[in-house]
Amino acid sequence: METVLVAGASGHLGRCVVTELRARGYRVRALVRDPARSVGAADETVRSDLLDPPSLAAACAGADVVFSCAGASMSLSSLRDRRGPLEVDWGGNRNLLAAARGAGARKFVYVSVFGARGMRGLEYADAHERIADELKTSGMDHAIIRPTGFFSFFGEIAKMAKQGRGIVIGTGEAYTNPIHEADLAEVCAAAVAGDAREISVGGPDVMTRAQIVELAFRAFGREPRLTRVPPAIFRASATVMRPFNRRMAALLAFGAAVSQVDCVAPSYGRRRLDDFFRTFAD
Questions:
Q1: pLDDT tens per residue across span 202-240
Q2: Per-residue pLDDT tens for 161-212?
Q3: Helix 53-60 and helix 93-103: axis angle, to 10°?
Q4: Cα three-residue angle 67-205-255, rounded to 5 degrees
């Protein structure tokens, strides 16, 4: 039985990956910063920090595969963690990759971002692509998974719609197909045993950004009320925020950019966005 170390195991995707790997017969070791947070059905939990290399070496010892969806929080509601993506997503996962190689793990599976290669120059995209670049030259067997947006992030749209607010960046005409974390976890688990080096994936529903916000309103039986905000305002906010909170600044800048381009990956999964939005109405 192979052991898979899951970094980011307490996040929305990480918990689903832990469950899916266990269902497929792997022994799962969950790596978390806060052991009090739930990691589902993991066989064991180890406390570590991506920015603490000695702790990562111990966490990787005996692991056959290292899987990482760990990085700076995508939540826009918290100002507590101000570390930016270059520090956490790149620096931290770089430490994890070194620890995995040092421990003799046979494979490293990393969750990047769909479309990041076309947005180099933005800190959030750069952080993910630097790890992808290092994996390609590491000499280690690896898989890079590039999903579109997670359902959990679009949950913020549902919360705003429930309050009668709908924010669209720009025209809202760019298309995307977000994917539910449980569906994405199936792709991630398959990549552990698979041969594919790069996997782009999205969900079954392809919609414009504006249509997604309208769908959220309908989940609550509300007439859609959309407020279109120019991307320049988000970019300016990112510039102002950067000296105080690099994480938030990076997310604002990336959000302004990604919302203006089509972000559609090959469709996978059965979970629909309207069903997800309706869970917020319960």
A1: 999 999 999 999 999 999 999 999 999 999 999 999 999
A2: 999 999 999 999 999 999 999 999 999 999 999 999 999 999 999 999 999 9
A3: 40
A4: 65
Per-residue burial over 47-59, b = 16 or more CB atoms within 10 Å of its CB, e = otherwise: ebbbeebebbbeb
**Sign of dihedral through CA atoms 76, 261, 182, 187?**
negative
Neighbours of 6 (CB within 10 A): 32
DSSP state of 73: -
Task: Give the separation between CA 3 and CA 78, rounded to whole angstroms.
Answer: 33
Q: What is the pTM of this model?
A: 0.93
- Do residues 67 and 109 make contact, with C-beta atoms less than 8 angstroms apart? yes
Tell me the C-alpha to C-alpha distance, in Å, between residue 136 and each of 45, 61, 203.
Answer: 29, 23, 26
Q: How far apart are the C-alpha atoms of 165 and 223, rounded to whole Å?
A: 11
H/E segment holding residue 231: helix 231-241
What contacts 200, CB < 8 A, 6 or more positions away?
114, 146, 147, 265, 266
Distance of CA 78 to the CA centre of its chain: 16
Helix (H) or strand (E) holding 274: helix 273-278
Helices first, then strands: H and E counts in the chain: 11, 11
**And the tokens for 271?**
């979970």
